[in-house]
Design brief:
single chain, 178 residues, mainly alpha, Four Helix Bundle (Hemerythrin (Met), subunit A), two-stranded antiparallel ribbon, 4 strands, 6% strand, globular
Length: 178
């Protein structure tokens, strides 16, 4: 299958994000654990510091609201837990795209209850970290792919999950004016 235009391409194995200053090549598994473990607490702090109206305000130029980013990050950790499990237990699994905008629309992220979304994010992070701890040291180079031209490794999955949390917490803070 060719890569559809509606699905953004995956970041490279050696991606460096200029926005959130994350360098995949320098990010260790220990760094991943630290970054991911901090996501729910930071999200909860932002929730407590801003009123509901601020969380619902649409972003500039059609960007998601803070609530939509929060729900996306919650879903990232559920999806990446499953991806890690499949990468650990299957040979070169094909990973289904998240279809982020479809999820945001169909599951009405803009109107999600923030408290339960934060609680679910916390539970998904715990599950992700538990699955991360099950990856054997000799499995970080195991292949996965989303589309044929998008081959990645288990280590990339871990780094991308950390990047999603770090980057989107920045997006949430920006949407809230924090």
């Amino acid at each position: 299958m060719l890569h559809p235009d509606s699905v953004p391409p995956l970041a490279a194995e050696d991606h460096v994000c200029a926005d959130c200053v994350m360098d995949f090549g320098r990010t260790t598994v220990g760094d991943v654990r630290e970054i991911v473990a901090a996501v729910p607490g930071r999200a909860r702090d932002l929730t407590e510091a801003h009123d509901d109206e601020a969380w619902r305000a649409p972003g500039p130029d059609g960007a998601w609201s803070a609530a939509e980013y929060l729900c996306h990050v919650r879903d990232v950790y559920a999806v990446f837990t499953i991806r890690l499990h499949r990468a650990r237990t299957e040979d070169d699994p094909a990973l289904e795209p998240m279809l982020n905008d479809l999820r945001a629309r169909r599951f009405d992220y803009a109107h999600a209850a923030l408290g339960p979304a934060i609680d679910q994010l916390g539970a998904h992070v715990v599950g992700f970290l538990a699955e991360l701890d099950r990856v054997p040291e000799d499995a970080w180079a195991r292949p996965v792919h989303r589309y044929p031209e998008e081959g990645r490794t288990v280590l990339w999955l871990a780094r991308q999950a950390a990047h999603e949390g770090r980057h989107h917490l920045r997006d949430i803070a920006a949407a809230l004016g924090a």
